[in-house]
Amino acid sequence: MENTEKENKYLRAKARVEEIRKFYSNLSMYVLFISFLAFINYWTNEWSYPWFLWAAFGWGIGVVFQAIKVYRGNLFFGKNWEERKIKEFMEGDDKNHRWE
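RESULT FIELD:
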């Protein structure tokens, strides 16, 4: 029973890491490709019509939705963010008031 539970945890963690890896791969491809399109846009018409922004906006929406899926809606403040911050501030307070 315990071995099966550990294996299930491992498989879930592995799947989560794969999701995160795919997100960062997609994000890096987004940055590279949109930069390339911006360069082509500048080279062909020197920003008279920034058409590369249409591709950036469209693909960017997909990247944002993928980020929400991967980080489960907690892009900035994770699940235990408040507890970690309270603990961090308490430890910092102990260090600052050590000699009082």
